[in-house]
Amino acid sequence: MLGKVGHAALTLLSLLLLWQEAAAIEVPLDRKSLNRLKSQPPTIIKQSVKDYIVDPRDNTIIIECEAKGNPVPTFSWRRNGRLFNIGKDPRVTMRKRSGTLEVGFRSGGRPEDYEGEYQCFATNELGVALSNKILLRVSKAPLWPKEVLAPVPVTEGSPLVLPCNPPPGLPPPLIFWMDSNMTPIHQDRRVSMGLNGDLYFSNVLVQDGQNDYSCNARFNFTYTIQQKNPFNLKVQTREPYNDTSYNASDPFGGRKVAETPPSFLSPEGSGSSKMVLRDERLLLECIAAGLPTPSIKWFKRGGDLPALKVKFENFNKTLKILSVSEEDAGEYVCMADNRLGSIRHSIDVQVKAAPYWLDKPTNLVLAPEENGRLVCRANGNPKPNIQWLMNGEPINSMITETPTSANREVLGDTILFRGVQIGSSAVYQCNASNQHGYLLANAFVSVLDMAPRMLGPKNQLIKVVMNNRTFLNCPFFGSPLPELRWFKNGQGSGLDGGQYRAYINGTLEIKRARKEDEGIYTCVANNMLGNAENQVQLEVKEPTRIIQAPTHQSVLRGSKASFHCKVVSDPSLPTKVTWTKDGERLDLGWRLKKNEESLTIPSVSENDEGIYTCTVKSEIDQDSASARLTVTHGSTGSSIILCSSADHPDPPIDLDLSDPSARSVRLTWIPGNDRRSPVTDFLVQFEENRWEPGRWQNLSSFPGDLNSVILQLAPNVNYQFRVIAINSVGRSQPSQPSPRYKTTAAPPDSIPRDLRGWGSNKDNMEITWEPLRDLEKNGPNLQYNVWWRRKDSGDDWTNVTTSETKYVVRNTETYVPYEIKIQARNELGSGPESNIVIGYSGEDKPTDSPTELRVSKVGSTRANIHWKPVDLSSVQGEFKEYRLYYWRESSLVPGLVVSKEKKTTGFYTTVPEPSGILKDLVPYSKYKMFMVVANSRFESLPSNNVEFTTAEGVPDAPRFFRINRRSLDTLYLEWGKPLEPNGILIGYQLVCQRGDFIYFTFRPNVTDFILRLPDRSARYKFNLSALTQVGTGEVYAEESPHFTNEAHIDQVDIATQGWFIGLMCAIALIILILLIVCFIKRSRGGKYPIRDKKDLPLDPVDQKDQDGSFDYHSDEDNKPLQGSQTSLDGNVKESDDSLVDYGEGGDGQFNEDGSFIGQYTVKKDKDETEGNESSEATSPVNAIYSLA
């Protein structure tokens, strides 16, 4: 439990130096270092945000712009693209030695008059640096338009939307709903506010009419709340409402309210789309109407929802992703369902991106005649446009030549400098922009010739703890870039390797400081213009440790309690021991006694209970240990404590971080109450907010007697820790999280896994590997160094650096072995190299084919295969197998149709005379086959085709076998021919078993048999098989049904029973007699009185019959029939069952004798009704007469 508080500052400085390890030496920006240098172009170090919103009530608006350089920069501003003359505006002032503007309004003026786009220019004789364009806007809180809202009528159970429509503010206001009593509106699955501020009711209850609803807008900048006039609901019900009948399980109080299936209130329709920018917040909303209230579920087509990023809010109606990335794009589906149905709405999410940096340009220091480059790489969606500026002016628009023009070449996102000269220093700006935003970066190119200079303090004394990783710092500068070497005690040829590692930025690492490492270390920087040196004295000290820590105690009230804390430390380092209780410093009064190794409480009381911590500190480290004091209350209390059951421990408290270093930190906590079961272990968990925010992962476990531990960490991770106590009962709840601790970046430690090389084409090799995990990257801009060379060729390694997880080597020979290795690297340096693996370039089609394919020893289901092999060098790839293609061409059984599907089987052999066995053939069939040789991707041309026939075999089982009872004494047996007879069928064999075996043999064309049973109550077993010349085939076994309880006994055919035939004959005779009677009756028809006919119109022309009577219309035709009812208006009420209704809307017709022949015919045309036929319409009375 060692601590290193005094060492913390040195360690933190060392971490910063490690971060600079892989970066080029830059001109220092601190003012003290700048004064030592000849010149320095300006650099912007502080500026206001791009979108700058100010409060109109402030008396002063401050627009920041700070820059450094040598000479000290001067500042100017542009407003809306034009020079902003500060001297002409009395309200605007600029701070001294700064570009920050202050606009004051104490003497009048409006902030709105100063809205616009501002940009700061910092200038000295070496160049001009630009700030971002700062859009200054004044916060606005417009008033809500006054309006009178009429009561809103709504039917109970119907959906409702109350619009808010808040006034547009800057920034937008926060919306919430309240009633007139300033009570927030209760929201749940049924009632909730949408993203647009509207209030949605999935269905309305009568109780909703008891409140009024007012939308409120809170403007954060002005701290004001505006309220819209309230809505009043008038809920209409179909049945009377009784307040006393309401309960939560039946909100309608037993009244019938029509249920409705789900429908979407927001968004509308079945589909919509949404665009969101990378790293912004994605909010998707689905609010549905329906009764019962629908539930909402979310899905993502083509994959799962990202569980670690997605959160559901507003009762599952809102899906939220805090920081969107490209992989979050896709189609999201929300489903609303209740017991009446479900509906879906698809939202097509498109993720665009404002520009973001891939490689931000950095300052470049060159000596005369040196070469260099500036790189500006950015990504976005759409792809950003890159524009270069020099000293604030676009390079492409420069008309006049400058000293740097001849030595400069712009190639897209890169500027190349060749043979630079003194006087060509400048500040370059890279602007990456697309329709969603822009990035602006300044990077100066400074051309200097300067002898080496030391920038750090002279003759430092560094004290470190033994066995710790140590860094000695020697910052320097010079141009051309000096070479720096370290020496110990003025001797040696330079320290680098083994225990030491020298970094390019001047830092010397001692991997594990020992006593023999003490001494004076000298760093010397050299370039062509001179040299400079500095010294650091290193002292290695023994660690400060607690060797006897305080222990947990449980003592009686009034007794003495003592905590021991014995310490050892380096003799040259003074130490100080302090005691705390529950994290608070102890006031050592008359009750508490302290000496060098213990703390004593003579007479304990309840107030003394707590956690006591002993802390020992030196100037470079510290250590601490804790113990709990429990006060009991005599024997009774003790027995209660001892007899009460143990429980889960309380979580630890007061987590604290100390002793930060590059890859470790000390975590200290105070244990909670162990709940009468000693803590056996502490589990430390961590969460990091970059790769998997919100996910807690196990880090380490420690014994239960520790409360201060060193945690080994990964670089470039923003950690947060929590501790879980474990006793015999189980785990405690997690503690509150510790403060965050971010480790500095470092080169990778891990080697990419699963390195392999393989060819996707005949002339390439794809080198692939598994990328490093997020916590293995150790720093930004992770890339991979990949090397390859042809195996056993003696060639030099070829290498490439890529950020992908695959690299394709092109123009290779076919299937050639390569040696491959890989190394991960980031901005801080390179990691370890992998072992060499063997990969192969791509494969091509084999040039040779197997020959002399033949068969031998052909049986019914197998055959021996022989062939002549190929030269393996002709395979042009990895030899996989000799692949045999074979298929059943036909069956030798006449009329049997077979499948000609090709099958394959493989033979892996490299013997000179290969052979194999082809199995699972169908007997009595004709086969064809050929062979190829195969590598991993291709097959050769086929060998010669071979035909062969298999011998006859035994048949398959019959296709089916059924047994039915025709009567109590007989069984009906029926079967089907085998699907594969495997030869010529010569018959069937049936074996019946009940004690003894009875054999029956049938011809091949017989497929049924009736068997008379000697014992109707017995059960019989039957085995049926087909026969060929080879023998008996597969058996189909069945058992006879029982005559008393089997459901499948055949039913007696009723049509064959005598009583049924006699009954049918009698019924037929009766029907014949009735038909004859009806015919006679109809033949006796005659003319009918006109007045008895139904009042239906005739044709316009009266018709005269043979007997002299006329068909004509008369007034009597309009009279009702005798016995019929007359309607109120005097019209005849027709019978409900008029035969006209059974036709197709036309008139019926009669023969001359009055018989009815047209009940179901359509009304004839006039020319069809002329002659001797009557055109009278039929009526129910006519129909009755015709049958009389």
TrEMBL record:
GO terms for biological process: axon guidance; brain development. Residues 1091-1119 have a biased composition (Basic and acidic residues). GO terms for cellular component: cell surface; growth cone; plasma membrane. The keyword Iron-sulfur does not apply. PANTHER family: NEUROFASCIN, PROTEIN SIDEKICK. Residues 651-747, 751-844, 849-953, 957-1047 form the Fibronectin type-III domain. InterPro entries: FN3_dom, FN3_sf, Ig-like_dom, Ig-like_dom_sf, Ig-like_fold, Ig_I-set, Ig_sub, Ig_sub2. Residues 1-24 form the signal peptide. Residues 42-131, 145-226, 262-350, 355-446, 457-539, 543-632 form the Ig-like domain. One of its GO terms (molecular function) is cell-cell adhesion mediator activity. This is Neural cell adhesion molecule L1. Coiled coil: none annotated. Keywords: Cell adhesion, Cell membrane, Cell projection, Disulfide bond, Glycoprotein, Immunoglobulin domain, Membrane, Repeat, Signal, Transmembrane, Transmembrane helix. It comes from Poecilia reticulata (Guppy). Neural cell adhesion molecule involved in the dynamics of cell adhesion and in the generation of transmembrane signals at tyrosine kinase receptors. During brain development, critical in multiple processes, including neuronal migration, axonal growth and fasciculation, and synaptogenesis. In the mature brain, plays a role in the dynamics of neuronal structure and function, including synaptic plasticity. Residues 731-758, 1091-1188 are annotated as: Disordered. SUPFAM superfamilies: Fibronectin type III, Immunoglobulin. Interacts with SHTN1; the interaction occurs in axonal growth cones. Interacts with isoform 2 of BSG. The lineage of its organism: Eukaryota, Metazoa, Chordata, Craniata, Vertebrata. Gene3D superfamilies: Immunoglobulins (2.60.40.10). It is found in: Cell membrane; Cell projection, Growth cone.
